[in-house]
Amino acid sequence: MSSHEEEEETGPSVDSTDPEERIAARRIRITKRIEAAKREAMGEDPNAKKKEDKEEQSKSRKQIEESRQRLTKLKADGTELVTNVKVAGDSREAQRRTEEEENHRQRTEKLEAEAKAGAERFEEITKKWESANNKDVPQDLHDLLMQQKALCDAMIDEKNKLITDFQMELKSKDDQYVKDLKKQAEDIDLMIERMEEQVKNLTRSYREELNQIEKAFEAERNELLDNNGVKWGQTMQGRRDKEVDFMKSREKRVDDYEQQIQHLRTQDAEEYNMVKIKLETDVQILEQQLQQMRATYQLNQEKLEYNFQVLKKRDEENTITKSQQKRKITRLQDVLNNLKVKLAKQEKQYREDNQALADDYKRITEQFKELQKKSKHFQATDTRKFYDIWVMNEEQAKQLVNDVLEQDRIIHEHQLGLPWNVPDVTFLENVGPLTSTGKKTVSAQQVLEEVMSSTKGSVGNGEDESELGEEEAEAGEDGLPKLSMKTIKQVLELLCDESGFLVESKLNKLLQPLEKDERSLMKLDAIFGALGIETEEDIHKLAGYFIKYKLIPAKGTDKHEDGEPSILEATIAGEGSVSGVGDGTIGTVTEEGEQKEAHEGEGEFEDQDVDAEVAQVTGEDEEVASVQSSVKSVADSLIHPNDVLKALREFVDDHHSQSKDKGKFQTFKIISGEERDDSQDEEYWRKYGSVLTTQNEKVWTALVTGLDKYSDVLNQRTKLISETDALRQQNAELRMLLHQYINSKVNNELEIPPTRVLNLEFQQ
Amino acid sequence: MAEPPLTEHNGTDQNDDEKGSIKSQNSQKGKKIPSPVPSAKDDAAADARNMRRIIAEDPDWSLATVPLLSELCVTHIVDEFQDHPKLDELLPKYKTKVLEKISTDIPLPVVAHLVSDEGYWKRRCKARWDICDVSKYGGSWKRMFFERHLENIVGHFVPESTDPAEVEALLPLAAPYIKKLNIKQLLPPVKEEQMRPLEDMSDAGSDSGDNQPSIDHFEFSQIIEKLPHIEEFHVTYGVRDCGMNFEWNLFQFTNRDCLLLSKCIKKCNTLKVFKLHRSKVDDDKVRVLISHILDHPSLEELDLEHNMIGDHGARAIGKLLNNHSKLKKLNLSNNKIRANGAGAIGYALTKNSTLKYINLRLNRLGDEGGQAVARALLKNSTLEEIDMGSNDMTEPTAAVLSQVVVQNTTLKKINLSCNRLGPDGGKQLQEGMEENNTIVEMDLRLTEAGQESEYCINQILKKNQERERELRLEKEKKEKEEKNI
Q: Do residue A94 and residue B390 have CB atoms under 8 angstroms apart?
């Protein structure tokens, strides 16, 4: 009956045999329940919703619901009707009880009142009995008795009355009871009647409702049937129509196809005929061809047979050659194997050789290193030795020179009585081997100062210029191009102006109060510090860059072409000379001592040599001067200030690379020995020789002869003196002997002692 | 005689046995069947014409006249059943036949344990009583028979004159089948006048209500102890259909009766329902009874309607309710409980957590008692049904009840009929009901509560009923599902 169940049964059923379906059904149910719970939680009345659902449901269900409601109402009404009787009875009973209670109370009150009254009366009577006892008169007593009797009667009457009352009441109660019984019987009858009626009603209405429900179901079913019938009819009609359509179209199609087939048949027949004819002709042609082919085949067969024979023969030959080849191969294989073995051996050997050589190489390098070390050591010792020898020789020479000079002085003063002029002996101040470094590396600082001071002390300072010229000349020997003061100054000014950024700002501040020149001097100092310029050389190089920079862009003019190579050549020559000198020194150091002696011995020749050298130097001077002039002309057009930075950069790069190169070269330099200039040694040593002039020598030679003579005389004298001395000594010895004799004891024994004789002689 | 053939009965044996069986048949059914039948049958095989002729000549002839031997045997068994009961040895089809035919008068000792067929017992019941409602006996006719039989015997048992052996003889037969005893009357012992029975009694008897000593009734201890399955026991100490022979002492429930009954109830651990009504049970007796059934292990329903229980008795009942029992239903209708007793019961209700139904109809609770009970309902959360009809309650009780209706969510049915609640009380109840959705029944007849309120309350009740119905359906469905799972 339940609408829910039927609702459920529309979907998948829980009672289904399929477990999947059951699961699905339960899921649906759960979702439904959750929804219902939600709805309830939201405060909606699920019933309302369900009722709506029900309204939407089919007629039958509606009918069922209606019937149910009606029946429940009917049942409730009926039950109420039936129970009404009971309730009424209850009510009456309750009423009765309350009344009964009231009555009971009244009754008890009444009884109590009565009892009280009765007791009073009884008291009264009993009192009277006492009075009656006192009465002696019978009549009085009678009267009293009568009175008493009357009283008692009255009391009894009252009691009887009460009793009758109660009995009446009882009776009425009995009546009431009977009435109640009757009433109850009636009630029961009524109840039964009502119940029966109710049952009847209910059965009737149940039947009716059942009928109605059945009707509703039937109606629904009919409706459903009708609907389905109509639907069925429609679909059937549709199907029929479709079938007819299909039939028609099919017929049409069949016709079409037939026509097409006919058409195709005729066409194909024609085609077939044509093809047949064509094929027949083809067959004929092919037959002919076949014949031909057969002939050719015959021919070919013969040919091939012949070929086959030939090939067979060849094959045989081939087999023979093959076997030969095989044999050869095996032989060669053997050879190959041998060679391989050999190769392996060779390889092994070479490897060993290689190993040995590598070891050798290692050893040699080690030896070489050792050698280097040794050479270094020797070099050092050599230099030391050289130095020591030099110093020793020098000392000797100095000693000698001093001796000579002293001699000369003595000769002049003592022998000749002439005033002695002290010759130039400044070179004697030198100690140790000659070194040209002091001259070479004029510090940049000095150069700066010089340059600046030169500007100060006007351009026309001849001495300075000459000095400079000398310097430049000396520098020229080193091969570096010497630029004119002016140029350098210009360059420096340019540098000072343009590269202020290299100077620290603090320094600038400090320099503020100084003079302009000094300021620029300090500035340049700082700049040089930043650029890493230390020597004059560097300054010149820098200047060269400045000029170069001017030159390079303007390449092509003859002047510059001349200028540059000259500089370069000079540098190359310088370097060459330096290296030459270095080599020379090592070789010449040992011979120096001899050379010195030779110097002394061959003073005149050396003079000439010196002259020649001077001449050479002057020649060089001239060359350098020419270079200078060219450079000067260049210096007039220095680079534009804007290019200074570029030039500086390039200079710095090159400078650094050079310094690096230097570092590299240093090892070699050490190996190749101390770079030493021994060109002046000769001169130096010669100076020792030339302390005495030729004139003096002449004097000395004259003196020698004179003195030789003198010495001969003296020698004779000495001879004589020595003779005298010898004589003297003989004398002394004789005296001694004499003395001895005198002093001997023999004398005493003698009569005349010799001593006395002697004394006497002396006295004489 | 028919034992072997019955069990091995076959068609082939038929002819051989028939001759023998006919004799017995004849002896039983007289000369109904003419003798030529067998010969005719024999001839029928030989000569068809013979047969035809016989048919023509003998209008009584019938093919079906000869019963099967098995049937004859069955009838014989049926006839001899009283002396030679045979049932279990038979094949099922014969068994049913036998059971259909055996007499309903066969003494109980024979059939009681042997026959378990409901059909037989149905016949037996119907033969004995006109009205038989088997649904009251759990659908078991046998149980119905024995229960009613025992009730009848006990009901007509007159102490000291009836032979107790009769009862004792019945007990072992009936004991396994009895679950419920509904003793509708108990006769007092026949006293003084030897021929007291019913007719000689006159009004004089009504006066002589003072001959009380030893009019004790039937002792239940002798039977209750022997009924292992008894669950329900109804008893009324009174006489039915006394008609004009009314006498007060016919309806006397003596102290000894009470004591014995109480002890008996105490011993019976299977009892679930105990009903003692229309027995003039007063306060003292109730106290005796309650003192015995305190903490009874199985008792669930106690019915003491139409007695004379007053406030003291109600207090005892209150004690019983106060966690000394497993009572689910308690009926105290038509007693004399007043405010004090109601107070005791109300207090017990606040502590109780088993009781589901209580009936206080037709008592004298008054407003005070009504309020006490109603306040108890505010705290109680198990009670589902309460009947307070005809209790002389008025408006103040209605005020408390309106609170109850708002707060309590377990109460489903409430009966307030025949109390003068008045229109104001009706209003209050209506207001309370508007916030309630659990109560499905509220009887307000004859309370003068005003039509409007009654109508409104009825509407609410209807709504609640609908809801309850849906909940019930849901529950049923769930149970069904659980079963399916």
A: yes
